[in-house]
Amino acid sequence: MGDRRILILAEGRFGVLDAKTATCVIRYAADEVVGVLDSVTAGQTTDQVLGFGPALPIVATLEEGLALSPDTLLIGVAPRGGLLPDEWRTLIAAALEAGLTVASGLHTFLGDDPDLVAIAARSGGQIIDLRRVPDDLPVASRRADEVDATVVLTVGTDCNVGKMTATMELTLAARRMGHSAVFVPTGQTGLFLDGRGLAIDRVIADFIAGAAEMMVLDNAPGNDFVFVEGQGSLLHPGYSGVALGLLHGSMPDAQVLVHSPTRELSLNDEIEIEPVPEWIELHERMAAYLKPAPVTGIAINGWDLDESEARAWGERIEAEAGRVAVDPVKFGAERLIEAIVASQAATTAERR
Amino acid sequence: MGDRRILILAEGRFGVLDAKTATCVIRYAADEVVGVLDSVTAGQTTDQVLGFGPALPIVATLEEGLALSPDTLLIGVAPRGGLLPDEWRTLIAAALEAGLTVASGLHTFLGDDPDLVAIAARSGGQIIDLRRVPDDLPVASRRADEVDATVVLTVGTDCNVGKMTATMELTLAARRMGHSAVFVPTGQTGLFLDGRGLAIDRVIADFIAGAAEMMVLDNAPGNDFVFVEGQGSLLHPGYSGVALGLLHGSMPDAQVLVHSPTRELSLNDEIEIEPVPEWIELHERMAAYLKPAPVTGIAINGWDLDESEARAWGERIEAEAGRVAVDPVKFGAERLIEAIVASQAATTAERR
User: What does pTM read for this prediction?
Assistant: First the structure.
C-alpha cells in the first residue's frame, strides 16, 4: 500500500483483543510495518503471536525499535476511554525526539500537549492525531439517501467484534468481483490505513449522523459500493448512541452484521449477547423508520476458530438466521457481496 | 428564582417554535426577565405574543434593551446546528461592551472568539457558554442502575416537542406532592434556568451515555426522584444518537413520552410521526435490553390547544395507548407522578 516504515506500539497488549489497531495494521499493511514494540512478547515474531502474516520482529524497547529504522510510531492499542497512559508519554516524547512521526488514535490529543509539540518542532518529528475531526460538521438530514452507490454499513453484536476487518474484507471482495468500491473508515485503525473518513466517536454528539451523512456523500460518486465501517453496537451501554447515529446518518441500503459466535457476554459489560435473529430484527427495524436496510448477511469473526469450526458456525447461523453467514477473513466476503447484490436487485424489481 | 436581570435576544423568532429558550425562561423565570429583544414583535408585550405570563416589554434595539437595565443578555433562540449568525455577533459585542454577562447555548463558543473575549476583559462583561462540557467524561458502564432514587427520563416523539418543559413540570409536581425531586437539565435552556447538568448534545460521541450516567450518580443522593431532561428522539435523523445514549446512560426506572398531538410531520425532516403506541413499544424495548423502564405516561404538549382540546386529546391518547396522558402545563403533572409511583410499586412487589 503506502511506503511508510511503521513501528507499532502495543506495549503489554500485543496479541490481546484490545490491541486491534496493531492486529489490523499487520493484517492489511504488513509491508509497511518494520516491527512491534511490546516488552511482554519481545523476542518472538509477530506471526508467532498472531497466527498469521509475515514474521516481523517484536522488540522490548524503543531503542531496539529505532534500530529497525522506522519513520512512524503508531499507537496500536486502544485503551477504554481513549486516554493516554502516563508511561507512554515518555516513550512518545523519545520517538518524536528521534524525528519520527507519531500517529495516535487516542482521545487525548498529542498535538494539544505543549511539551510534545515543542519536541516535535525541535526535532522535525510530526504528530498525527487520527481522531481529530473537523469542527464544521452538519446536522444530518437524510441526504445520504440520495446517492446512486449501494451503501453498506457494518454493524455489530458488540464493540470490538471485527467491524473494521469485515468492512475491509467486503471492500476487497467487491473489488475482486469487478465492482468499484470504497472503504469509509470511522475509527482510528481504518483512518490510519486509509486516510479518508473521520473518527465518528470523536464527533460532538449533535453531529454523529451528520458526519456519517457527509462521508457517504463525499465517497459515493463514481463508486458502485460504499462500505461504511460501523462502531459500537446498538445495545452497548457506552457506545449505542454512536451506533444509532451512524445508522441514521449513513442511511445504508444494506447492513452486514458482524458477530463473534463464541462470545456469549459482551466485552466491557458482560451482558448476555442477544441471539443473531434478534439483532437482525432490531437493526432492520431501527433502519426502516427512515429507510429500509435489510441485514443481508452475517460476517463471522473467527479469530478464535479454525476453518472447520468457522464453517460449522456459518452453517449453524445461516440456518438460524436465514441469512448468508461467512468468516470473510478465512473464506473471503464474496458470498456477502452476492447477498447484497441479490437484495438490491429484489428491491429494485419491487419498485417497478 | 434567582436575582438576575435578563434581556432575552430572540431577534426575528420570538413566539416562534424554535425560540424555545426564550419561551421557557419566561415560563419558569419570568421574575428575572426585564424584556425581550425582537424587532419583529417589538411594541407588543410578551404575554400578547406568548399567550401566558406577565406583560414584559419587547424592544427593537439593544439600545432600548439597555434602558431596561439588564445585567444579562441571553441568546434565546436555538438555530439548527447551533452556529452563531453573523448579524448577532455585532450585537453581542455591544452587549459585552456595555458590561453585560452574555449567556449562550450555541455550539459556536463565544469564549473562543478572541475579539469578544478582549471586549469582555476591557468592559468587565462576562461570557457564559452554556454548552461547554467537561473534557474528562467517562464511558458509561451501567452504574446509573445503582442509585436508590427513582430515575425518570423524558423522551419525545420529535425534537423540540417540550421535553424540557415536561421535565420541569414533573419536578414541580413531585415537589408539590411532598417528594424530594431534582431536575437534571441536558440542554441549554435547562442549564440556564438551573445551573446543574450539562449539554449532552455537545459531548464527544463516545461519552454521551457516560455523561448521562455521571449526572444521575451526581444528582440522585438524597432525592426521591431524578428527572432527566431528554433530547432529540430515537427516530430523529440528526439526533437519534443523543437520544439513545441518554437512555442507555441514565438507565431510568420510568420514561415519560412527550408528544404534540397535532404535529403529524416531524419538524426538521417532515417525516410522518409514528403512532404513540409504536413509540411506547420502541422505547420500552430499547431500554429493556439493559434495564426495564416502562413508559408510564404521556406528557401532552398543548401549546396550540385550549383546555378542552388538551383534555380531549388526553382522553383519546389514554384510550389508544393505555397510559396516563396529560398536558402538564395546563393541568399539572400530578397524574404522571402517580403513574410512576404505581409502576414502581408494582415492580417492587413483583421482585418480592
Answer: 0.94
